[in-house]
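CORE FACILITY INTAKE
Project code: CF-77B
Contact: R.S. (postdoc)
Sample description: multi-component assembly, two entities in total
Requested service: structural model of the whole complex
Turnaround: standard
Below are the sequence entries exactly as provided by the requester. Do not edit them.
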Amino acid sequence: MDEMFKPSRRSFLRGSAAVAVGSAAGAAAAEGPDPLIADLQDWASYTGVGVDETPYGMPISFESHVVRRNVEWLTASPISSINFTPIHALDGTITPQGCAFERHHSGAIELSKQDYRLMINGLVDKPLVFTYDDIERLPRENHVYFCECAANTGMEWAGAQLNGAQFTHGMIHNMEYTGVPLRTLLSEAGADTSSDKWVYVEGADASSNGRSIPMEKALDDVLVAFKANGEALRMEHGYPVRLVVPGWEGNMWVKWLRRIEVTDMAVESREETSKYTDVYENGMARKWTWVMDAKSVITSPSPQMPIKHGPGQMVISGLAWSGHGQITRVDVSKDGGITWETARLGKQGDTKALTRFYLDTQWDGKPMLLQARAIDDTGYVQPTKGQLRERRGENSVYHNNCIQTWYVDAEGNAENVEVS
Amino acid sequence: MSKSPNIFIPALGGTALIIGLAYGIASRDYGAGKIEILETRVQQVEAQASVASEKASAESERAAELEQMIAEVQAAAAERVSSEADLTTPAPRTGGSYGIGRAAHSEEIAVWDVDVLPNGRGLPVGSGNAFDGEEIFADKCASCHGDFAEGVDNWPVLAGGFDTLADEDPVKTVGSYWPYLSTAYDYIYRSMPFGEAGTLTPDETYAIVAYILYSNDLIDDEFDLSQANLGSFEMHNKDGFVVDDRPEQEYAKWREEPCMENCKEEVHVTMRSVFLVETPPESGSNSVMNHASAEGLPSFTSEGPSFIPVAVAKPTKQDEANAAPAVQETETEDEGVDLIAAGKKVFRKCQACHKVGDGAKNASGPQLNGLVGRTMGSTDDFKYSGVFLAAMEEGRVWDEAALAEFLAKPKSYMKGTKMAFSGLKKEADITAVTEYLKSFGE
């Protein structure tokens, strides 16, 4: 970037001073004219950056802190690890690919379209191999879906652990996928699609991450996807082709999809026995817990998004989703669940996709215990942590969809807490 | 603008026209719009056909074909209108075939289709026992999973943990938790060792699985595990799983219309966040213990908070406040840059075990900062094998030649090394990774 187009340090200081005044007293009540308005600013006089300066654009430098982040001590190595979407700093519902969380079992691999092969075999009339180009020749669909890791909010089983919506609820993203229905590929191969059959899927990476999907789901809404939010998938999300299993836990969304096998029983792979099974208090475990139940979280205010403007008009904003269908309603409480108000949905929720909610409200400057509670079109009401623990104990690791509480103090700072 | 001939003007005019048309269509009543679109299409096809039939007075065959097409389009249009399908009807569900994809060769299927089912179906012919498995495990697995499969640092524990599943912190291992032995064979054969997956033979895998059973006291060291008995081996926790019972246990109960007012008498904070999480501007996070107690916080009733605590110093640095514009450093053009970049890719083969760069710590292998010129086996606090300790005693130093030889064949250059890595086959990879490692000083 040319020096000329950067705001000078002086104007930067002037600017921030003005902002400080503005936030203390409200822009309208500023004493005297605001220099940001009264003075000629560099950016209003010199020209800006030309086209093609960044052939593929990145967010402006002021937003460079809005990135996915990991918590190093959670895992042994970043190659078999997870990071978190900065949901606290986003709005609307679509997650930009560049900040959508990553979870790898053997690292993200670089697999080109030319080197990509997809095999379909097992109980089929014609075992087939597809190239990437083959897949693009089949009828495709567009759908927005959320992808949530089964372990999202998993640390919180044991109590309030990590201070930030990014870290408690950031193993989720929501994208518009373009892909071919899995049923089309099954039909190409002449698969036995009777209801007692399974579809086993695996990836091309070293972990292979195999999962078994019952035939009913495979024929329903599963997509073999190659685009997200209009562009090619990112390496870390399975370029060039990944599976999209709407409403079901993220581990099943096999990345770098390389093989689809029709079988007569579940494979009981490591990812569906050792992991992604939920241990009850008595030591028994649940398996095949695929659906992600209805859940919500307030993204602002939240620990990384304190209220900076003082008392008065404000927006409480958050996300809600359900693996069973649409979100029909979200309630918000400011007093830890004594009183609830129904929030406004940013737009009618899509099925198995993130829904944004807003509560436009007044803050009296007193402490709050903020909570949100989602209801989906099956009538299911998001449970409290107490309800979940009563059923499952604290050792489940996965599928924690409890109501989250943020304590907001009189300064507007928020903290992750648990309440009676 | 109007004075200069502008190449955009015709293009913009065209776009405006299209947008105008699109708007016209979109703003009409939806159903009516749809019928109109279809009618227009039919008209278009008809027009096309009449032009064609004029031309083709001689070619009556072609005309017949076009008429057939018209009939098809009209039928499709009629069907669409009558079935009230909207224009976003999902991709057609075919029972038939598009004829895309080619037949898979049986050799290809044999290579990729290696999954093993719970009853042992899919197991290759082979066998092994714990006695042989111990050695292979020590060589290829113990650096992360421990000599006795007990796990090193944060790496997975594979043995023990029996009767802990109902404890506060259950220890879920192959022995204590896994319901099927097929899973161990399947996973190890395809996904381990971490960083060199897919290199084990069936016999090695049987031997390793036998060793893991042995470490869990489930068999003795002479037990021969093979394709004949693996599928029927009964695991300790085989009855420990129930199929998802949320529909009966939870959904049925959690569908009641929820309370909106006076839902509780009083609410108080029972626990505050264990960690405060600092978020440095560039990336990552630092967790810091939160020493604040729940006692200083108000309780809540329908009247609001019981009191307003006096503000104390802010617990965390908020990332927004730190959001300084990032300084972009442009890389200087340099001959070495390409090689270093290539080396960085090669290093992916090493990064499961080695760290390099600022603040790199020992992992399952020693950190590799300032490697060239460094005495072999000399990083602090790393437990080297005997051969490395001996090299250190002798004062041998890593130079490029020694490194090249070691990386080509670790086990023959350093007999008895515990680096479970078979070596880099390509010389270019060795040169590149060496260059990459040289770019990190002490």
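Facility notes:
- Residues 19 and 351 of chain B are 53 Å apart (CA to CA).
- Chain B has 14 helices and nine strands.
Invoice: internal transfer
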